[in-house]
Amino acid sequence: MTHYFKTIMLLSLACLTAGSTFAEDEDTPLAKEMSAMNTAYRSLSKAFRSGPNPDQRAEYIAQVETILEHAKASVELVPALADTLAPEQKNSMRADYTAAMQKSIQTLEQLLAALEAQDYAAATERLVQLKKQKSAGHQRFQED
Questions:
Q1: pLDDT tens-digit profile of 46-86?
Q2: Residue 133 contacts by C-beta under 8 Å, 6 or more apart in sequence?
Q3: CA 65 → CA 10, 71, 109, distances in Å?
Q4: How many domains, the chain?
């Protein structure tokens, strides 16, 4: 009986420790900015899957503006993964991250311009491009 109690206690402690570790990662300034971007991005991406609705253009524009605001705020932040690297690698990662974010900001600005011009074909292309940039960035700059 005591063996089971000890096992349960150890498992509970392990879960609490893992939970607090993940919570710390989610509380970084960059994680907060990325989370805010992701919420708006998912909503926009979902809307475009079934084809953009011109009646929702104002909502799409607001979502892109939200993503753009948080993207600009995150440019100067450093991915947590960089803290695990040697100083020269950290500097290189930071430069690469900044360049990638600036490229995404450019794509977001193009997406916004396309929506404002009601060019939904161009907006769809920019959204596809943004998805590729997002995936590449997460693969490169996010911890596993």
A1: 999 989 999 999 999 999 999 999 999 999 988 888 888 88
A2: 100, 103, 104, 107
A3: 46, 10, 9
A4: 1
